[in-house]
Amino acid sequence: MGFIRFSGVDFHYGPAGSSAVSILKGLELELAQGEFYVLLGPSGCGKTTALNLLAGFERPSAGTIVMEGHAIGEPGMDRVVIFQGDDSLYPWLTAQENVEFPLRMTGVGAAERRRRAATWLSRVGLANHGQKFPHQLSGGMKQRIQIARALVCDAPVLLMDEPFGALDAQTRTILQDELVSICNGSGATVLFITHDIAEAIILADRIGVMRAGPGSAVKDEFALDLPRPRNRGSVEFAAAYDRIQRVLGEEVRKVVTREAAA
Ligand SMILES: Nc1ncnc2c1ncn2[C@@H]1O[C@H](COP(=O)(O)OP(=O)(O)OP(=O)(O)O)[C@@H](O)[C@H]1O
User: Fold this and answer.
1) Measured between alpha carbons, how far is 172 from 156 in angstroms, rounded to an integer?
2) What residue's CA is closest to ligand 1, atom 25?
3) Any idea which fold 4-78+156-261 has?
4) Which of 23, 84, 195 has most ligand 1 atoms within 8 Å of CB, for mutation?
5) How far, in Å, CA of 193 to CA of 40, rounded?
6) Where is the ABC transporter domain (predicted)?
7) What order do you get walking across the sheet with 79-82 strand by strand?
8) What are the domain boundaries of the chain?
């Protein structure tokens, strides 16, 4: 049995019955401990909804989400969420203080806090920027701080919702490579959402492609056993890209065709 398991998960908005808007229908998803799982899917298919359910921000309308044998009911310190953009940093705190913040909330002493935050700032390449405030840092630097702040707690599960979506292509590539080396051997189980097939192939152990909504679920899964770090120019990379593009492209076309007809 998986470390995390979605079984027959439905999610709808609005009152039950015909007027409810069905977002997810019968979603089955299983993540092994330490696995890096990437969800791809056309816009609006329910990727963020699935992540929010695992985060405990929402409850399933039907079915169960179980982690280590316990049903997920609410947010917890064992699951850390990293969002797109940098709005979640506290602008009145320095980079170092932002990374220390979750440790302060859990009662870790000042010296230990400083030491652990400094270690993570250094791991994300910002050892010399700890005293700066968010407005003095670039988008990529702020995203690195978000990652350091998430990882400083040693949470066993990381939930990343298009964390690099707002960054330029070069910074994005660098942060993808950094995330691979940070996560490699960390033991963390990661659910990562993106629209970007190349990003998914760089990062994932497994990729799930979701159907176009409404009532979406995982259509196809791809296990990637290419060694890391992965070479974006390799034949194997191109072959994986092609296989996934075919499945995802079909779902994206459904959405585009529907939007054109509306
Ligand atoms: N609070 C809400 N009330 C009603 N519908 C909602 C609500 N939040 C999201 N939705 C709808 O649920 C569907 C799935 O949204 P979700 O954000 O999970 O999709 P997504 O796959 O992450 O999309 P994207 O790739 O565009 O970010 C969308 O059609 C969206 O409009």
Assistant:
1) 24
2) 43
3) Rossmann fold (3.40.50)
4) 23
5) 6
6) 4-237
7) 79-82, 157-161, 189-193, 36-40, 206-210, 218-223
8) 4-78+156-261, 90-154
CA-wise closest residue to 10 among 216, 193, 221: 216
- CA gap 122, 62 in Å, rounded: 44
Report which protein residue has its CA nearest ligand 1's atom 7: 13
Q: Is the CB of 23 under 6 A from ligand 1?
A: yes
Q: What is the pLDDT along the chain (262 residues), one digit of tens a residue?
A: 589 999 999 999 877 667 788 999 999 999 999 999 999 999 999 999 999 999 999 999 999 999 999 999 899 989 999 988 667 899 999 999 999 999 998 899 999 999 999 999 998 889 999 999 999 999 889 988 998 998 898 889 999 999 988 888 888 898 899 888 888 778 899 999 999 999 999 999 999 999 998 999 999 999 999 999 999 999 999 999 999 999 999 999 999 988 888 7
CA distance 129 to 126: 5
**How far, in Å, is the centroid of ligand 1 from the Cα of 50?**
10
Q: Residue of the nearest CA to atom 13 in ligand 1?
A: 44
The token duo for 203 is 């990062």
Ligand 1 mutation pick, 12, 21, 81, max ligand atoms within 8 A of CB: 21
Atom 14 of ligand 1, nearest CA residue: 46
Is residue 90 within 6 Å of ligand 1 at its C-beta? no
Residues in Cβ contact with 249 at an 8 Å cutoff, skipping those fewer than 6 apart: none
> What torsion do the CA atoms of 256, 173, 98, 116 make, to the nearest 10 degrees?
130
With a 6 Å cutoff on the Cβ, whether 47 touches ligand 1 is yes
